[in-house]
Amino acid sequence: MRKSLIFTFLAAVLLFTVAGTAHAQKRYVGYSGYSEKPVAGAEAMSYVLRARYVLPANWRTSKPASAVLTRRFGPVGSCRIRVTVTGRAIADADETAAARVARLLPAGILADEGTRGNAAWRVVRERGGARTVIGLLVKPAPTVRTPPPGKRVWIELRAVGLIDQKVECHSGGPRTTADAFGDMLAGARLGGFQPR
Fold it and tell me: How many beta carbons lie within 10 A of that of residue 145, not counting itself?
């Protein structure tokens, strides 16, 4: 009798450990996409943009899991935050990535920022009502064969979280979303090439 109780206990511990490990492995889901897009600010120029990133596994995607660059998630949490992740290429000022991301996202409560190589990211939360969370990763585009005169081609990955106006939302929801954006952008891989 005692041996069977010990065996049952050990089996339950093993089952719990395996289930916990499987659950821990599902905490994040990876997404990748690519798209040929016109380069904003550069007439008749296009760029093939590729992106890879991870987001929490409990963020339901509202678009099919295909190789698209724009994805929508949500509603997330009790604030019912709807998240959109998009990528683009743009011809703009020749500056450092850190200066660019600070110029494009200057306002709000700074939640995260950083650099990796020649890329920089920043995450801000809207002040006051805290109804929006925005994250942006910028990087000079690699393999640009014909840069526009006096400009640099940039590739960007942007994440926007919009809080449902109909629900009461405390700071925890936007803060958690901002943390997820920071993790996503810090580990994202962004690249591409000019096709012609």
Answer: 9
Contact by Cβ (8 Å): 148, 42: yes
> Which residues are CB-contacts of 38 (< 8 A; sequence separation ≥ 6)?
45, 46, 89
Q: For residue 84, what pLDDT is reported?
A: 94
Two tokens at 78?
A: 């009790």
Average of per-residue pLDDT across 7-19: 44
| Tokens, residue 63 | 């678009």
> What are the structural domains, with CATH classification, of the chain?
28-193 (3.40.1000)
Q: What mean pLDDT do residues 4-15 have?
A: 44
Terminal-residue alpha carbon distance, the chain: 76
| Location of structure tokens 């106006």 | 165
68 Cβ contact partners less than 8 Å away, ≥ 6 residues apart: 33, 35
Q: Which residue has the tokens 């920071």?
A: 182
Q: Where are the beta strands (DSSP E) in 80-149?
A: 81-92, 109-116, 119-125, 132-140
pTM of this prediction exceeds 0.90: no
Tell me which of 39 and 16 has the higher pLDDT. 39
Question: Which two tokens mark 155?
Answer: 């590739």
